[in-house]
Structures are given as C-alpha cells and as structure tokens.
C-alpha cells in the first residue's frame, strides 16, 4: 500500500498545549480501546449549504427544542470529563453561529480533566470570534474549505461567501500560535484539480491539509452521484502533483501523511469511507440533538439532553456515558444496533 519511493519522517507541527491534569481513570470499552475524545455538535444549523452535507431547505429543529443551552453543554462536558474524556472538539452545523462559542471554549478549557479543546468550522464567522477564541485558550482550529476559487466555492456551498472565508483563512494562516488543519472534501470533477493549490499552502505555513473522502452522510445522498473520489485516486493525484513527496508517520485518522523537503507543513488523506479505523477509534459523539453516540453509524444513541433536562443525577449521567462506551461496537459498519444513520446529515452528527 505504501509506495516504496516514499520515505518516512516524523510529523512536526505546532504543539498542542495541555492544561489541567486528568484525574479520572482512563475510559475503556469492551474491546480495550481507550475512549478519550468527544466531538460535540453544538448546533445543527449552518450558514452554508455544502452540497454533500445539507439540502438547501435543510432545517435543524427551528423550534429550538433540541438546541442545547450553554449550561446543558457545559454540564455535558463536565460529565464527559469526569467519565475520562480529555479531548473535546466543538463542531456542528456551524459552531460559530453560537454567540457563546468562546465562553464554551473557555469553560471547557477550565473543566478538570479536559486537556485540549478544538473547533471545526467553515470559518465564515472567524472575523467575529477569533480573538475571543484565542483569549479563551482554543488549542487548535480545523477550517473546512473545499475550493480556493470563488465560483467553485459558491457551487459547492451554495453561498456567495468565498471572500470572507478566504480572508479568515489568511488570518488563520498568519497565526502560528494555534495549530491549523484545513479540511478539503474531495469531489470528482469539481475540486480534484486544486490539489496543488492546497498543498502549496504547506510550503510557507506549518499546517496540515487533509484531503477527505466523501462519506455517505448527507440528507439527500449526493455521495451516490459519482462525486466520490477514493483514497487510491487521491493518492495518485497527490503523487502526480508531487512525485518527490515523502510519507510521514501519520496519526489515527491522518493515516497517509506526506510532505516535501523544505515544506513547513504537510498534507494527508483521510480515507474515511474506504478504510475502517474502528480498531483505533477513541471517540464519542454528541449529536446536535443532544444524543450521545459511540459510533458514527449508530442511529439512536442515548438522549443525554433529555436526561439533563429531566434532572437526572450526576451519577446517572455518568452511568449513561459509561453505558454508551460499553455498547461501542467493534466495527461500526457491521453493527447490528439498528439501521445506520447514513441518511442523516453530517451537520447533525458533527463530522
Ligand atoms: N460546519 C463546520 C465545517 O464545515 O467545518 C463543522 C461541521 S462539518 C459537518 C465537519 C466536517 O464534516 C467538515 O470538514 C465537512 O467538510 C465534513 N463533511 C460534511 N459532510 C460530509 C460528507 N458527506 N462526507 C465527508 N465529509 C463531510
Ligand atoms: Fe455547513 Fe459544515 Fe455541512 Fe458545509 S459541511 S453545510 S459548512 S455543516
């Protein structure tokens, strides 16, 4: 699988800081995987309409019934931390649509046991929130942008917001104090000729660009329409663009990581569909509706939001987290825990 011409080096990115030491014992599932990471969709709403994620008319509970309040979210974070989670990622929907996002980061950072708090964002509202996020101590930012061309950005996202996204990306690139990853979903015939435009960013900047496979999580199943570009094809495109690229020791999801001599950053392939990372999965997810799922493919999950609203004791909330971890399937794609959630938009699951 790994090309023989590729050499192996060690990743050299901006280090993550750590804060309060974790006092909770590690959280392990029945297959001896240590679960330490929670991704929280802090809203299901979004200011873009990426074709592979949401329908134009996508609605995320406009009644606000399932919108988690600040207190509900921080309760959840402290319960997760007490259960053994050390790393939190705030995602969505678009997390920066929450006016209280920086306060959430600050509170999560101050939660005993939580070592890192990061965010995945489309970047549109960073001009409004970035300073506050930095003051709150955000540890890392992932910004999703699938094209560096205005017309394509509009075609993919259905919103004419390229200039704003690009200006905010440029600001992030200039900020070397915070680790930055750029997420690019690869779409056949749409952005697959932009690989070099993205990798060129890593020459000057110590960032990682992640070329991601399309996954079957959108509410209108666009992934069935021939836009999917698999890991091998992406790798071939990268190799053509950079015949001298060297392979790095990637981590977890960044399985195939590369760079070139003299480049400050790197790029990676995220083969989220063709490869099965279940054996190394360390994560839980809180969906935008407040349901806790221990697997991307899980349909129902545990309704933590209702449990909190019903005034369940802290011990009971902790037990629900442990129960979710106990039920974490060995292999998500073959789980027998109900139908998969493939028809559900990634904006509800949190990516
Ligand atoms: N709105 C934020 C953003 O776009 O970064 C955070 C939420 S979004 C659901 C998180 C990540 O999921 C983004 O990088 C997005 O590109 C990715 N994503 C959404 N739908 C996807 C799909 N069907 N296949 C692969 N990645 C997807
Ligand atoms: Fe919004 Fe992110 Fe989904 Fe795009 S990928 S529609 S930015 S939630």
Unique ligands: S-adenosylmethionine, iron/sulfur cluster
- According to DSSP, the number of beta strands is 13
Assign the CATH architecture: Alpha-Beta Barrel
List the strand order in the largest sheet: 1-8-9-10-7-6-5-4-3-2-11-12-13
Query: So how many helices?
Result: 11
- For the residues shown, what is the average pLDDT? 86
Q: Report how far apart the termini are.
A: 26 Å
Could you describe the largest sheet, including whether it forms a barrel? 13 strands, mixed
Using the CA coordinates, give the radius of gyration: 19 Å
Shape: globular
The helical percent reads 25-40%
CATH class: Alpha Beta
- What is the CATH topology assignment? TIM Barrel
**Which homologous superfamily in CATH is the superfamily?**
Aldolase class I
Strand and helix order: EEHEHEHEHHEHHEHEEEEEEHHH
Number of structural domains: 1
Low-confidence stretches: 1-20
**Class inferred from helices and paired strands:** alpha/beta
**What percentage of the residues does DSSP assign to strands (E)?**
15-25%
């Amino acid at each position: 699988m790994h090309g023989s011409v590729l050499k192996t080096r060690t990743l050299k990115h901006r280090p993550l800081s750590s804060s309060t030491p974790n006092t909770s014992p590690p959280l392990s599932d029945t297959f001896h995987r240590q679960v330490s990471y929670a991704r929280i969709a802090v809203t299901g709403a979004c200011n873009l309409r990426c074709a592979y994620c949401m329908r134009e008319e996508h609605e995320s509970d406009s009644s606000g019934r399932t919108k988690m309040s600040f207190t509900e979210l921080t309760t959840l974070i402290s319960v997760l931390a007490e259960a053994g989670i050390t790393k939190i990622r705030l995602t969505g929907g678009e997390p920066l649509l929450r006016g209280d996002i920086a306060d959430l980061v600050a509170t999560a950072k101050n939660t005993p046991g939580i070592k890192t708090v990061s965010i995945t964002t489309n970047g549109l509202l960073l001009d409004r929130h970035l300073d506050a996020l930095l003051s709150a101590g955000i540890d890392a930012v992932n910004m999703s942008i699938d094209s560096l061309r205005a017309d394509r950005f509009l075609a993919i996202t259905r919103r004419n917001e390229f200039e704003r996204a690009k200006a905010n990306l440029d600001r992030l690139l200039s900020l070397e104090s915070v680790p930055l990853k750029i997420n690019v979903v690869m779409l056949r015939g749409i952005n697959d000729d932009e690989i070099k435009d993205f990798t060129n960013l890593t020459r000057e900047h110590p960032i990682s660009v992640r070329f991601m496979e399309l996954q079957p999580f959108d509410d209108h199943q666009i992934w069935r329409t021939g836009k999917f570009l698999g890991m091998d094809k992406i790798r071939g495109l990268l190799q053509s663009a950079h015949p001298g690229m060297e392979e790095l020791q990637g981590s977890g999801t960044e399985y195939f990581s590369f760079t070139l001599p003299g480049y400050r950053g790197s790029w990676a392939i995220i083969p989220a569909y063709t490869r099965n990372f279940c054996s190394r999965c360390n994560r839980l997810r809180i969906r935008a509706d407040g349901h806790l799922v221990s697997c991307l493919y899980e349909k129902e999950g545990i309704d933590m939001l209702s449990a909190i609203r019903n005034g369940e004791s802290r011990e009971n909330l902790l037990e629900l987290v442990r129960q979710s971890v106990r039920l974490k399937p060995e292999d998500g794609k073959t789980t027998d825990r109900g139908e998969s959630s493939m028809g559900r938009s990634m904006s509800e699951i949190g990516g």
